[in-house]
Specification:
Helix content: 10-25%
Number of helices: 9
Order of helices and strands: EHEHEHEHEHEHEHEHHEEEEEEEEEE
Largest sheet: 8 strands, parallel
Distance between the termini: 20 Å
């Protein structure tokens, strides 16, 4: 699990360790550990409104009287701990001191407390100061502590230099619990061409997941989860974990969706084609076979004609958009299996090592691309083309490209 992408963000303005909500929230959070959610992140208001006489940042004595013990208990439960700051003079809403001119001092405090994750906002910059210098100062201060701390910043950090400064960069403004706002994150991610910057060590952060907060339909929430996983956004839960329906728990714990988000290649999904009908075609994700032991990456030939995924039970189909809307070349899709559907029927040609669609006569093909490096597509069959050759497959196991070591 790539742990820096999975966390829960809770509002410190209404949270304390003196009541019963905090330990119950942590118990609920532990239920999702098996799916990779590891960080408990406190947002704004965990601090006292002023610094100590020596300039140190001070946790709220009222809300967190046992601050260091709380962090110890979080770590003892197998979780990691994160907190919030602002690179400027104060945090958002002027609720607490920012880190301006206290970067080294604050970073040392975070390391002393065994903090694992720091979110750095950009609300209250000094006059004439932009975010990047502040973010660079904190980034260098955190690294100087010698402790491994995930560093998250806002979109005011230019994307071109973000990887050298941080591990996560926000895509756009704060999300709200509406379908429009959720889709805005997706569109900005696409329109700004952010996918090429993402990969292990750096991710495009589309902000907190709003599933379970009540303003979206379940269908919209499923779309929300699908996009966050496909686009490799950090999975940061922004709902009340102490009050989740089973439907919310099941969606946030979806093994198949999280497997895509946590795919070890770390390739962010990109839009291939958008049609006037509203249909959008996204890339297929190819996983290196040496890392594909999990059933999610294993396919087998079923009943001689179907290519079935061993984890989901779904099958590969050569059926793309409606006739006349076909992109060129065609992209295969994954659908519920139907052995009578000609588009799901494939013939393996032993003499040429090709998979041929019985409906279209096109062959599976591995194509070079920018993101990801290789894409699966369907094109006119060429018997000597290396990109169309796949290893023979028995009743089980990976279908492996003979051109590149991908399943």
């Amino acid at each position: 699990t790539r742990s820096e992408r999975n966390s829960c963000q809770v509002c410190a303005c209404v949270l304390s360790t003196s009541g019963t909500k905090f330990p119950f929230l942590l118990r609920m959070f532990c239920l999702t550990l098996c799916t990779g959610y590891q960080y408990v992140n406190l947002d704004n208001c965990w601090q006292e409104p002023t610094r100590a006489a020596n300039g140190s940042i001070v946790p709220s004595r009222e809300r967190f009287p046992n601050w260091e013990h709380m962090i110890y208990k979080i770590h003892d439960m197998g979780l990691l701990f994160g907190l919030y700051t602002d690179f400027g003079l104060t945090t958002c809403g002027e609720k607490a001191p920012g880190s301006w001119e206290h970067e080294e001092q604050d970073a040392k405090s975070y390391a002393f407390w065994n903090v694992d994750y720091v979110k750095d906002d950009d609300c209250k910059a000094p006059p004439g100061v932009l975010s990047p210098p502040g973010y660079k100062k904190m980034s260098e201060a955190l690294r100087a502590t010698g402790r491994e701390i995930v560093f998250s910043v806002k979109q005011s950090q230019p994307i071109e230099s973000a990887r050298s400064v941080c591990n996560l960069r926000r895509v756009t403004h704060d999300i709200k619990d509406t379908f429009y706002d959720m889709m805005r994150e997706v569109e900005v991610n696409h329109d700004d061409g952010l996918a090429k910057y993402a990969g292990p060590g750096f991710w495009n952060d589309m902000d907190m997941i709003e599933i379970g907060n009540g303003n979206m339909t379940f269908t919209e929430e499923k779309t929300h989860m699908a996009f966050w996983c496909l686009l490799k956004s950090p999975l940061i839960l922004g709902n009340d974990l102490s009050n989740m329906s089973q439907q919310t728990v099941d969606l946030l714990s979806s093994d198949n969706a999280i497997a895509i988000n946590q795919n070890s290649l770390g390739i962010q999904g990109t839009r291939l084609t958008a049609f006037d009908s509203g249909l959008t075609v996204a890339i297929a994700i190819l996983t290196n076979c040496s890392e594909a032991a999990a059933a999610h990456h294993e396919w087998h030939v079923d009943r001689g004609v179907l290519l079935r995924n061993m984890a989901t039970g779904n099958c590969l189909s050569s059926m793309g958009p409606a006739p006349g809307d076909f992109p060129s070349p065609l992209q295969p899709v994954v659908l519920p299996c139907n052995e009578t559907d000609a588009y799901q029927q494939w013939e393996y040609a032993n003499s040429t090592n090709q998979f041929i669609s019985k409906a279209t006569g096109l062959c599976l093909d591995i194509a070079k691309a920018t993101i990801p490096k290789y894409q699966l597509r369907m094109v006119k069959c060429e018997k000597n083309k290396a990109q169309q050759k796949f290893s023979p497959v028995g009743d089980h196991g990976n279908i492996q490209s003979m051109f590149k070591d991908y399943s």
